[in-house]
Design goal:
single chain, Sortase, Chain: A, 2 domains
């Protein structure tokens, strides 16, 4: 099903257009807070700034606001001979749009309602996230260090038992094949995630990046990468959605690449502060990632910050989001080469050129181009 986004009477086909509209709304709100646009001279100055490109809008909402300003300029033309040319231009723009006074008044009500609902959603989302974080923290504090260590030891023992180091086929398996070695039914959920897993068994794990806002549950729904785009942990509608693992990735018997998706929220929830990694100093100071599955503790090191874009069906660009499992050395080398080419920084990406590292990719939107994407590549170190 095709997804549409709405704000009041306006409908947008892409999330990029929807975010442009949100940005225009913020600009309009800022202008109205600082200026009395109904004061004729102010209206003329504002009209000129928009017309000359000093203030820009990128959505129909911004265009409607410009029309409203033009209408104010045209109506306030009496006695403004110095700005006659501007007034005439404005009158031409609104010659057939006098009805906009009523339309804009109605739109102002929509804007107010939108911001009120948006703030309510932000508050609700923040509280929901805090409840999940508190639940994990409380569970962790109730478990002794020895219990957590015991759980980790049992997982290590199980893996060691399943992969004998005796020269057998299992021990010498092809690193480019994705083999089902661990039976998930034999695994136990880590104590700190047991309560949340009981609430929703689609919980795949928990991700934390020290020094950032990222401290969230991560979901995974079978054969569905859309479900958690606009749903919270409990499945209820939620603007920010929930972080989720690509359904093609395997967290028990790890595929070469585990991809986690999240929205780039302007309030910096979810993956809203991954943009900070475009600053090299920030990147160097925040490279450690803890992505624990519900069964196992895992640590990764971020080795690349990359910019890309969604490639349409008839385009020939590289689709990083389709790299899940390296089937052979050539596919692994191709991935490493493309990561190097897409890397924001000049440093050679620290990935093995011999055998595939176990990779974690964090993916979100970025508006450096239309349908742009920002993704971080991390390799497992523990």
């Amino acid at each position: 099903m095709e997804t549409h986004y709405t704000i009041g009477e306006f409908t947008f086909d892409t999330f990029h257009d929807y975010r442009d509209a949100q940005e225009d709304i913020r600009k309009i709100e800022a202008i109205n807070e600082r200026l009395d646009i109904h004061e004729p001279e102010t209206a003329v100055r504002l009209y000129n700034m928009i017309r000359n490109g000093e203030i820009t809008f990128r959505s129909p909402i911004g265009e409607q606001f410009f029309d409203h300003v033009a209408d104010i300029v045209a109506q306030g033309s009496e006695g403004m001979l110095v700005d006659k040319a501007v007034v005439e231009d404005a009158e031409g723009r609104v010659k057939y749009q006098r009805f906009l006074g009523i339309a804009v008044a109605a739109f102002a009500v929509v804007l107010f309602a939108y911001f009120a609902v948006n703030e309510a959603y932000n508050l609700y989302e923040t509280r929901q996230i805090a409840k999940l974080q508190n639940s994990v923290a409380a569970s962790a504090s109730n478990e002794s260090g020895s219990a957590a260590a015991k759980a980790k030891d049992k997982a290590d023992e199980r893996i060691a038992t399943d992969v004998p180091d005796d020269g057998s086929a299992a021990a010498l398996r092809d690193p480019y094949r994705h083999e089902q070695i661990i039976d998930e039914s034999t695994l136990e959920v880590l104590p700190e995630y047991a309560e949340l897993y009981a609430q929703n068994d689609e919980m795949a794990g928990w991700i934390t990046i020290p020094g950032t806002n990222i401290d969230y549950p991560v979901m995974q729904r079978e054969s569905d990468n859309d479900y958690y785009l606009r749903r919270g942990f409990d499945g209820s509608d939620l603007t920010a959605g929930t972080l989720f693992v690509d359904y093609r990735s395997d967290i028990v018997n790890p595929t070469t690449n585990t991809i986690i998706y999240g929205h780039n929220m302007r309030n910096e929830t979810m993956f809203g502060n991954l943009d900070n990694y475009l600053d090299e100093e920030y990147y160097n100071e925040h490279r450690s990632v803890a992505f624990n599955t519900i069964y196992e503790y895992r640590t990764y090191e971020i080795v690349a910050v990359c910019l890309s874009e969604v490639e349409y069906q008839d385009a020939g660009g590289y689709r990083y989001y389709n790299f899940i499992q390296a089937g052979n050395r050539a596919e692994w080398d191709a991935f490493v080469n493309h990561v190097n080419n897409l890397s924001v920084f000049d440093d050679h990406v620290d990935l093995s050129s011999a055998t595939p590292d176990e990779i974690l990719t964090l993916s979100t939107c970025n508006d450096y181009v239309q349908d742009g994407r920002l993704f971080l590549v991390a390799k497992r170190i523990d």
